[in-house]
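Dear V.,

Thank you for sending over the compound details. I've combined the ligand you provided, zinc ion, with the protein sequence from our construct and run the structure prediction for the complex. I'm sharing the raw inputs here so there's no ambiguity about protonation or stereochemistry in the SMILES, which I know was a concern on your side last time.
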Amino acid sequence: MVHEGGCLCGAVRFKAEGEPINVRCCHCRACQRAMGSPFYARAQFDLSSVTITGPTAAWPTSDRIERVFCTQCGTRLFSRRRDGSQTGIALMLFDDRNAFSPTLHHWVSEKPDWLELADGLPQYQGQASA
Ligand SMILES: [Zn+2]
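Below is the predicted structure of the protein with zinc ion bound, written out as structure tokens.
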């Protein structure tokens, strides 16, 4: 199975083959700042199963992760492991926004006070284990 998606302007397109490793919402400060949003909902894939075309650049936000964005429109696309093993793909970039559903929330200790999570999914104060 192949799921396709892209950025707001359409210059960046991607294809992700197979099933994701996991699908999670991360509420950590790095994800909040990188996305400018209360949390980052993403599907994690082996980088080898993702094909990307178009103009991108990356900014390292930790020793492990860099954030990839479209250099034309600025859409935040991926949280890519710097060792090249895996990448997170923001869920709302898939052409089918219901293609994947998160299974948990982690780093909820960092979520803003006004955000109430009522979806019944497991919540972890810190990092959920693999
Ligand atoms: Zn773009």
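A first observation: The beta strands are 2-6, 13-17, 22-26, 40-46, 50-53, 56-60, 65-70, 76-81, 86-90, 104-106.

Warm regards,
I. M.
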